[in-house]
Amino acid sequence: MTAALIDQIGGEEALIQLVNEFYDLMETLPEAAQIQRLHFRGHGLDHTRVEQVNFMSGFMGGRQYYLEKHGHMDVREIHAHVPIRQEDAEVWLATWDKALASCGHEGPHIEKLRATVRRVAHMLINTVPDWRKGEAL
Known about the structure:
- The chain is mostly helical.
- Helix content is 65%, strand content 0%.
- It has 8 helices and no strands.
- α2 (12-28) packs across α4 (45-59).
């Protein structure tokens, strides 16, 4: 029996560290400013950090926190209101890769995770009208 991916990366604490590194990068990398803007139109990055851990725990075979809290894990429904362009998906993925590397995650299980996350990110690209670019965050 193969261990769940969350266990392969070191458990929930390692997942929390990974998600925090990801959002620390998201808050500081200039190329991530557009994605940060999208998050601030929602609940903000503090909320997103928690929900990302909740979602990724279940996504990686751990406890289904997001499902328990929201009743589903439909990523299209979660992001249906958010304008996500190809460039946004690529920046998100590049930032995710930087966080994985920064936390020392590597190996075949991480490559499988990257491929799966890449498919999901590209599935979320949409034509939702953009929010006004000049508005205050």
